[in-house]
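re: ur question from earlier - yeah i can do the single chain one, its not a big deal. heres the input i used so u can compare w yours
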Amino acid sequence: MKKIFFFSIASLILLAFSLRSFFSLPIGSSLPKPDLKLMDISGKEVTLGAAQKSNGLLVMFSCNTCPVVIANQSRTKAICQYAGSKDIGVVLLNSNEANRAESESLGAMQDYAKSQGYQWIYAVDKNSELANAFGANRTPECFLFDKTGKLVYHGAIDDNPSDIDGVNRHHLQQAIDEMLAGKPVTVKESRSVGCSIKRS
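and the output i got, formated as tokens:
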């Protein structure tokens, strides 16, 4: 009987992890946990709600060490600068809680952001709380919210993360342009390619 009980518990735990990995914030959803306090690389506490600007908010799950993130840094910086120039708030979140004591510590984040010339919020997502709320599983993975705080795009920066010269469509920039023009976003979702978020 004990073996059956423990097997059942283990099965439920595995099911919970499986369901979490398949959950994704639906298009049209409101910004999750807008008042959750996060520690930014500036040493100050920030919230997603306060980071949102008049035309919306771009949230990108990222990190310091994923080879895909590193290879796509020029694209990350370009789209974050573009969003900022359109009065869209920009927040990068580091949800790699399992590596927080080492490569994904606040100090490591500060060093990485400085080396990359980040000019936007880069905050610790403690215990991967926002990654869980968003259903984020990859780095990089992008979520674009409009001025009312509704999700209008979720996915990759563009259609070819492995080859910048082979990009045919800039999904995120196109979504920003359509959103600001008051048009429906043509491609609302795309597949994020990158490293898995390292939850504890």
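Strands lie at 38-40, 45-46, 57-62, 89-94, 121-124, 138-139, 141-145, 151-155, 195-196. not sure if urs matches, ping me
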